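OP here, attaching both records as promised.
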Amino acid sequence: MSGKVKHPFRDPDRDRPPPAPLGKKRAGVPPPARSNPRRPWLVPTRWLKAVAGLFLLPVCWVASRAFFEEFTRAALRHQLWRTEEFYFFVLGVVLWVIAFFGLPRPLVVYVFGHELTHALWVLVQG
């Protein structure tokens, strides 16, 4: 048995030197040709997301304006701020802001809950 032993999981092109960057030329070596000249040009995903975001801006504007107008109307006509629900809502917002910005991150609780989920699924799956 002579020669190298072929590893079943090893990439055969691993030992080849990397190709030169597209902008740089090496002496005596022609620039690499496109691997597939019929491959269509692709639009970057970031551009598509930006265009979609621009088209969604008017929708967001109308929805936000409608929400705040209705909220103002409910607050003025029906005295929303005097209801018990509104007080509990504001109390919840204040407590959430204090917990989010004022307390340390509960990393130990998060990791414990994550691992407990794994253990629960092991028990459920058998």
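Record two, same layout:
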Amino acid sequence: MIDHLTLLVSDFDRALAFYRAALAPLGYAVVMQFTRAQMPDLPAPAFAGLGAKGKPDLWLRAADGLIAPTHVAFAAPERATVDAFYAAALAAGARDNGPPGLRPQYHPHYYGAFVLDPDGYNIEAVCHKAPSAARGRPPPRLPSPPPTRGASLTRHGARRNGSVGAGPHPPNPPAPLGRAGGLPGCADPLAMSLAAPPFAMSLAAPPCREPRLRGEPIAQGEGRHAARGGVRGGVPRRDQATLLFPR
């Protein structure tokens, strides 16, 4: 990154007056100035530093001999600043070297203006931003489509009818009605954990097992009634039913 540069000028006072006026739209001002009368060891009769926000990055130096003009470009925050620079430079005595406008041969948003200063330097102001970005406004965002009629949104933005809502998460998968064996009316614990509201777990039916046939003996270790053996009259007692199907 270039920190500063120096231009040799044939007429120091004329060049200083020109750049003070031409670069004012860019926020430039004279930050410091030295003469050989102030500093005897100065390598030139006079120096001046111009810059924005108190930092000189453009120096003018009185030349002792011939000069070779070159090209210097200044960054502008928006296109209106380029226009203001061009008008101010012409009013200060510059010659036109290219009016404000787009130079798409560089890139689509290259907007610059060119002038020749009193010594023939090609001075440019350029803005590289698109018009909306230069004004600090983001591009417009398209509105989200409205939800379909009859679809209610959960707190995660997913519609209960299975379509995707405006939220950041996809809809929850529907809970199956039974286990892999296909028993109707049996709630699957894994399916209950995937239900949309987290509190649906407490409202869902508890896990169940295959129904027993009337009079079928109960296997050892399946409940307190196992120690007493079998069933009473082929029908589980009340405490046995509570163990099998807790409330």
